[in-house]
Amino acid sequence: MNIAELQKLTDWLIDGGRSTTSPTRFMAECCERMVAAGLPLWRVGVFVRTLHPEIYGRNFIWKPGAEVELGTVDYHILESPDFHNSPLKIVFQQGLEVRVRVDDPQNMRFPIVNDLRAEGVTDYVALPLPFIGGTVNASSWTTKQPGGFTDEQLAALRSLAKPLARVIEIISLTRTAASLLDTYVGNRAGERIMGGQIRRGHTETMNAAIWLSDLRGFTALSDRLPAETVVDILNQYFDCQVTAIKNHGGEVLKYMGDGLLAVFPIDEYVGDEQQVCSRVLEAAQESRASVASLNYPIGDAVERFRFGVALHVGRILYGNIGGGNRLDFTCIGPAVNLAARLEKIASQLKRTVVASEGFAGVCRGGWADLGEFPVAGFSKAARVYGLADETSAA
Questions:
Q1: Which of 48, 97, 143, 324 is 20 to 30 A (C-alpha) from 208?
Q2: Which residues form a coiled coil (predicted)?
């Protein structure tokens, strides 16, 4: 063991491992420094829980001479036999260290022993990584050294786990903040907020295609069904749109009851307005098909659903709006107002997809001119277009 190198490593961790630029690079450099200090590591794993609606945790796996593997697990891991029979379950739930010597018969209760033996591993130790907030995450350390880890090497791993946990906690908190912002306000808005746009008045103008939709008959639906059922229906209904919106370059900004507001940014300098609007139309057609196939069993009946979406293109004001220290990152402007009015017209016409003259003019083909309609709050009537393949339905 090289005590001087271990001290340098400890100092590097206390300093935040600032010579690295990413979590995977931090993991790689940390393990490489440990090996250089005399720790005979073969495989190292760091397992961190996260605050995410779909992802239970992330894992980082290092092996000498290989790229760090980054993986995720969903909440089903808690029900899997692999987790229940793993030393990591003890670490996560009890915060205890677990050592598994491959040649110790008592450790045969862990199925992982057979995998370790096949890999040539002689010793495995799982160490808790306690965070200041009280949660406990986990790390695993293996070696192929004959006889396993020595007492001195184990002591070194235990002493390094504490500063390592601090750095991982900082990285984890930063990622969690970004993930929560992404979950609740969207990726682009989250990036801006994390970048410092947190004051009222921090806004910018942006050219974008605008998507505004709602579920037909939602008021009557919510009046006759239990609230839990309505929430479940809404979640499935929004799933029909969000996947298509994200896959085609859009970002959901807001849910308003059964309403959904999304934007598809247009780069004016690249001149991709036509491409963006084409992708928006594709997303609308996919959502129309998904909602049409959505059915929900309620008692002996099956509920079917219809929705409407208005598409427009124009300039919007995008940023922080609100009062005091309670802000909302959203978009406003005449273009958004017109999209909202068009969505109401779509409902009146019993249309699924309608578009403004501006949107239909950019994304040509497949439209039927539905005529001009007075628009509340606007001095001029708006010409409205519907998809030609909905003519018979109208």
A1: 324
A2: none
Given a cut of 50, the residues of the chain with pLDDT beneath it are: 392-394
Task: Report pLDDT for 393.
Answer: 43
CA distance 70 to 83: 18
pLDDT tens-digit readout, 287-346: 999 999 988 887 766 777 889 999 999 999 888 888 877 877 788 899 999 999 999 999
CATH code for the structural domain at 3-185: 3.30.450.40
Q: What is the tens place of the pLDDT at every residue in 74-112?
A: 999 888 998 989 999 999 999 999 999 998 888 888 989
Residues 186 and 177: their CA atoms lie apart, in Å, by: 12
| Diameter over CA atoms, the chain | 85
* Cross-strand pairs, 297: 302
Map residue 79 onto helix, strand or coil.
helix
Judge whether 139 and 129 are in contact, CB under 8 Å: yes
Pick among 3.30.70.1230, 3.30.565.10, 3.30.559.30, 3.40.50.1100: CATH of 197-390? 3.30.70.1230
Residue 226 has φ and ψ, to the nearest 5°, of -60, 150
Domain 3-185 identical in fold to domain 197-390 = no
pTM (predicted TM-score): 0.71
Return contacts of 54-61, CB within 8 angstroms, 24+ apart.
60/23, 60/24, 60/27
CB 126 within 8 A of CB 91: yes
Q: Domain extents for the chain?
A: 3-185, 197-390
Residue 145 DSSP SS3: coil
Alpha-carbon distance 133 to 102, whole Å? 34
Residues facing residue 214 across a β-bridge: 308
25 residue type, one letter: R
